[in-house]
Amino acid sequence: MKTGRIYLWDNIKFILMFFIVVTHCMCMYMPSNNFGEWCHYIWIFTLTYTMPLFTIISGFFYKRRTLDYLLKNYMMPCIIFSIINFVVGYMVHWPQYYDASWKEIIKMLPAMYSLWYLWALFIYGIITPFLKKHLGTGGVIALSIVIISISSFWCTKTFNIARVLGFYPYYLLGILLSEHKEFVYKFNNSYKAYSILIFIAFTALYFVADTFIPGIAVKADSGIPQPFNKFGIFIKAFSYIANTILAISFIGLMPDKELPISRLGAKTMYCYYWHMTPIFILGYGICSQFRGEWYDFLITMFSVPLLTLIFYTKICERITNKMLFIKK
């Protein structure tokens, strides 16, 4: 059994967080889900497996927590940074606010835009101890199938319920993997070539699927319900299978050694809290003045990810901890 800091997870988390920033940057180029060709192809790399794998990792390190811990570490940051996102987004006139009624805006606040994951972790932390105690491994697998069925076709997006339920099977998968840690680390150490090949193959499969269903990377999002018909069933089955395989193969191909990004990977939550701020200010604000110009996309996609590096600094860590009343 491995002891001490395991750099595998830090390396993975930094890469995933970088892709999440890129993904949210690209949202501004997709008004009304009108996917540009360049855009939905890029999302195959940055959207499909990133949050599923983040959720798997959270499940892998699952521990039973007190309600006080869940409130301080998940709900408090969710509320505080949802308000920050809302205020900053409103100030730069993010289009989603233009025609929204106050009732619609209030519905956004419990998990404002990107912060739905904190809301999800809070709920997972409450329900998982009960489920693990009373269902066992077989029951958890059966429950995952039920949850996928409900969240895929018959679930509301209000309060991000569809997204919270849709990603819970990945969380449960992480818990199951944590019961076989030795296998996970052996897989990472011994099957890198196979992992790379599988990752390339399923990425290529997404490209093929995208030629027939443009924007499938977004349409297959686990938080977006689909109509209960053959097309909807195919979309959901394809996404859960392909995204899971991509996520697992990504674990296999990532090096388990200290890299320059390893130290940053240990602080991804700080970047997650703050990353929408430069996206709103620079992407939806400053760069919107020359939207459509060839240099708009380049400036946004390079400058915003670079700016988010400040959220990995000790200064940002200290400021954030004080805001959240965390003593370290």
Name the descriptors.
single chain, 328 residues, mainly alpha
How does this structure look, described?
This protein has about 325 residues and is mainly alpha-helical. It contains 16 helices and no strands. The model has no long low-confidence stretch (mean pLDDT about 85).
Q: What helical percentage do the residues reach?
A: over 70%
Task: List the total number of helices.
Answer: 16
Mean pLDDT across all residues, rounded? 83
Assess the beta-strand content as a share of residues: under 5%
Estimated structural class: mainly alpha
Describe the SSE topology.
Blueprint (H helix, E strand, L loop, with lengths): L6 H20 L10 H10 L3 H11 L6 H25 L10 H7 L7 H38 L7 H18 L2 H10 L1 H21 L3 H4 L10 H24 L8 H4 L2 H7 L1 H10 L8 H14 L6 H10 L5
Helix pairs in contact: 1-2, 1-3, 1-15, 2-9, 3-7, 3-11, 4-6, 4-14, 6-7, 9-11
What's this entry about, in short?
The protein is mostly helical.
